[in-house]
Fold ABC transporter domain-containing protein.
Amino acid sequence: FGPIKAVDNVSFNVEKGEVLGFLGPNGAGKSTTLRIIAGYLPPNEGTVKIDGKEFWEDQIGAKGKIGYMPESTPLYKEMTPYEYLSFLAEIHGLEDIGQKVEKVFKLANLDSIRNQLIGTISKGFRSRLIFAGAIIHDPPILLLDEPTDGLDPNQKNEIRGLIKSLSKEKAIIVSTHILEEVDAMCSRVIIISEGHLVLDGTPQDLRNASEKNNRIIVSLRSEDKAKVSELLSSVLIPVAGGSEQFERYRIENSELISDIQSKLSNAGIVFKELYYYNTPLDEAFSKLTISKE
């Protein structure tokens, strides 16, 4: 976009059976990347391949393999959902249109608004209708930009479950800023910041990116702190969450938790809890992206 590089040297692949969480702060280049993959925006450099074939060699064939749910999609407010999905099915050249529409109506749980004008339905139902439109032709690839935006908790769970079930036979990319969705449905995570790829791995890899991950937390009586520090040859860092009699500490130590437990027990140290600290995804995400800004 003029002098601004929205996406710079971002390269990855997605296989059938994967749900890829595509994360990044606002303005990172997520939606731009999805538009390029979907063929709505040609890249200045680089390429997109579908089943090993260059996208631009057969744009119509490539687009037919993709179901794309943009962040915001204009809808025909004077149509009913049934008419709208039938119209999309006709554009895709599908046979048995009525059967195809009934299938996605059931999948997206839209039957209650079947004959209601689109201009009168709620934001949540509009999101589900757009999702239904993306899967009407049963594409092998789904690109979903904020698919649960505007949905209530029950509707979110329905869509997440649907995405996971569809992933068995599809390659799915989900762009989202809701980190709980990564744990709920993603098998892999990519994070971009300022147009650059900063992580490609599993949700656990994202957690491991935080220096705090897998640190050991222990609750001790405050009078035992010095003794435990000497016993473990480790610094004990106070953390929040202690009780009246027990203080909580983070152990700066690479020992196994079972070895630490044995040492404390053998030394007669009373402890209330001993566990690995697992970094929240939002904390790990912030570490990777804020440092890039």
